[in-house]
Amino acid sequence: MSATESVMIRLVLGSRNKKKLKEMVALLGYLPLDLTDLTPYPDAPEVEETADTFVGNAALKATQLAPVLGAWVIGEDSGLCVPALGGAPGVYSARYAGTHGDDQANNDKLLREMAHLGGADRAAYYVSTAVLADPTGKVIASVEGRCHGAIVEERRGAGGFGYDPLFLVPEYGKTFGELPPEVKQQMSHRAKAFAELRPVMERLVKGELS
């Protein structure tokens, strides 16, 4: 390798969620990074999300996986919060109905829990927290993004994932399930979090963090 060549830095999303990886690639793909999720690491440990905050769970993923993989890792935790439900589903968003990742059951439960609510009580917001750790497990950056909206009374649209068919974006009068992916990528909670992370990633590819 010549002096002008450099090795592309691998950045691992500490998840096996392909839809989250697709969004990360859309948001950071302009950078010269080798972006992947945990798929190339079948022996990577399952990190238990035992924290009671989004940032706590994101940090657990980043700091525990990075030294095991020997790579830069982004731990991301996200969810939906409904103030009228005391902030639920919150950190339990992915397993609200009991089974992790069962979007249909989670949506069904949320609709039942909110059946008696109307007007302003149907307000909700998405949260995404991302924590970047270096290959030793040291936290380099922690960011958060939020997207405010409301929960509709029945599913609308088949796009997105999680609670997207129920999450109404007031500016468009449509749910994330109805909006094109490129629109969601511009204004979602994850887009806002990764926008905050972007300057740090640009420093990383310049070699200013290694």
Automatic annotation (TrEMBL):
Record's subunit section: Homodimer.
Record keyword Zinc present: no
Annotated function: Pyrophosphatase that catalyzes the hydrolysis of nucleoside triphosphates to their monophosphate derivatives, with a high preference for the non-canonical purine nucleotides XTP (xanthosine triphosphate), dITP (deoxyinosine triphosphate) and ITP. Seems to function as a house-cleaning enzyme that removes non-canonical purine nucleotides from the nucleotide pool, thus preventing their incorporation into DNA/RNA and avoiding chromosomal lesions.
Binding site for Mg(2+): 48, 77
Cofactor annotation comment: Binds 1 Mg(2+) ion per subunit.
UniProt protein name: dITP/XTP pyrophosphatase
EC identifiers of the protein: 3.6.1.66
Catalytic activity: XTP + H2O = XMP + diphosphate + H(+); ITP + H2O = IMP + diphosphate + H(+); dITP + H2O = dIMP + diphosphate + H(+)
Enzyme class: hydrolase
One Pfam family in the UniProt entry: Ham1p_like
